[in-house]
Amino acid sequence: MTVAEFAEKYSMEVLSMPEPAREIKGGYMGDLLSWVMGRAKADQAWITIMSNQNIIAVASLVDVACIILAEDVRLEESIVENAKAKGVNVLATKEPAFEIACQLSKEI
Amino acid sequence: MSEALTFHFDVNGEDFTSAGQASVRFKKNKRELGVDPEIIRRASIAMYEGEINMVIHAHGGVADVEVDEDAIKIVLKDQGPGIPDIAKAMQEGYSTAPDNIRSLGFGAGMGLPNMKRYTDEMQIYSTVGVGTTVTMKINLN
Fold first, then answer.
1. B112 to chain A, minimum CA–CA distance in Å?
2. Which fold has domain B5-139?
3. ipTM of the complex
């Protein structure tokens, strides 16, 4: 399933979607950035509650399909602009991380 | 590639949120060279972790990257406090990062272990009170 399809199906808010056609091929959940860089794989959806500027660099380097912000976490506008500039998809939802992981598991 | 390509980056130690820009730029450069994406990914993450370490512990430093036909070589050099016990610093989960760094999602004690995980060779040269140099090599074949 693509990031755009997943966002639409689960009514997620799209904060940044420069690459809507990217396929989601798994998921990783975590807030400690070095754990994410050590363990997450390319093309996974990364579920997190972390919201500082560094998540965009981490997402870009790990090459995840998208960031999914859980629990209604929001980003500052400058971070959203940075995500768009770096080609990083960012979705947001009120759902907790566990629920998002359950949604993902149905689609991959 | 008949001759080595080199890149030099200054890592700004004052602006934590800009950390990673060198690594992301480096990643973009490599993509343009047609290097395998998984190798780029490993090299970029290793470099980013090193960059973050220099920002957290050493007020920044410099990164030099050399790419030839066989390997990507990265040298990270700082004039920070040095690492008193390198074996300890290499243990997953061991960290001396301050709390404000942890609130940004770093300081989990995974930086140096990740650098080792994603590279084929890694050496740390450190003198307390003088600084640290980390060299990493990622083979292209």
1. 10
2. Heat Shock Protein 90 (3.30.565)
3. 0.79
Specify burial of residue B32 (Cβ count, 10 A radius: 0-12, 13-18, 19+): exposed
B18 contact residues in A (CB cutoff 8 A): 53
Domain spans, chain B = 5-139
Using the CB atoms, write b or e for B93-115: b if 16+ within 10 Å.
eebebeeebeebbbbbbbbbbbb
Sketch out chain A's domains with CATH numbers: 3-107 (3.40.1390.20)
pLDDT digits (tens, 9 = 90+) for A1-52: 999 999 999 999 999 999 999 999 999 999 999 999 999 999 999 999 999 9
Cβ contact, residue pair B37, A63, below 8 Å: yes
- Is B110 part of the contact surface with chain A (CB cutoff 8 Å)? yes
